[in-house]
Write a structure and sequence with these properties.
43% helix; alpha/beta; 10 helices
Length: 237
């Protein structure tokens, strides 16, 4: 406990307003859950710390945050190693190269961007259990991240056969050209399709700073929120 106080004294003051922004988002999440007739305890808030230094993640940990999201492997790996003593839950949420997948699985508690069988194969036998979400492409553009909806069941079955993976559910990013509520309603139907063959895969990773309320209304269980909590991102290095 004394170590926590010392850490708080040295880290938290460097990020004025961080605690207030965190509480504001948590309050917004609670309001959205209440409006949807849901309990806020059913929703996991993942704070996305892309481009921010490890010291900001440490400050978030002092404020009670345990779930942290990153979308660049090298950056995520460095932060996870530096902050290992904090016992955070690291969520990899970005596009992942097959050749980097096994490395990411060593520090990630969950990978939200599984979108092809080769990626499943790359981490199928890692020496620790890893939660995985199947990312669905919500557009007609094959260049966008995510599995095509027509291939969703096939990918789910492949993930279920992987010894080290725990299929948690689906993930998506709402397209800018479509109202978030409509996109997340479609995602809920994709979730139903996965649950038809994997009844325990009930999770839905959806909703960011600008659309988490619509995601909650559609059943999202994991929110990925960055700038509303962390503030403006630094320029990538």
């Amino acid at each position: 406990m004394s170590e926590s106080r010392e850490s708080s004294a040295s880290v938290a003051p460097a990020y004025p307003g961080l605690g207030e922004r965190l509480e504001l988002v948590k309050s917004g999440v609670a309001d959205a859950c209440r409006d949807a007739g849901r309990s806020s305890t059913d929703v996991t808030l993942i704070v996305v710390t892309k481009f921010h230094p490890a010291s900001l993640v440490a400050a978030l940990a002092e404020l009670g945050v345990r779930d942290v999201g990153e979308n660049r492997h090298q950056e995520a790996q460095h932060k996870a190693e530096e902050l290992a003593a904090l016992e955070l839950r690291w969520h990899f949420i970005g596009q992942l190269q097959t050749k980097k997948a096994r490395q990411a699985a060593r520090y990630s508690h969950a990978i939200h961007s599984i979108d092809r069988e080769r990626l499943v194969d790359a981490i199928a036998d890692v020496d620790r259990p890893v939660d995985v979400f199947l990312q669905v492409n919500m557009t007609d553009d094959p260049a966008r991240g995510g599995v095509a909806p027509a291939e969703l069941e096939r990918l789910a079955e492949h993930a279920l056969a992987a010894p080290s993976l725990r299929l948690r559910g689906v993930m998506a990013v709402a397209p800018l050209e479509e109202p978030p509520a409509a996109a997340f309603a479609r995602l809920a139907t994709y979730s139903d399709r996965v649950r038809a063959i994997a009844p325990d895969a009930v999770a839905i990773s959806a909703g960011m700073t600008h659309d988490y309320r619509e995601a909650i209304a559609a059943g999202a269980t994991h929110l990925r929120i960055g700038s509303a909590i962390t503030g403006k991102r630094p320029e990538p290095r």
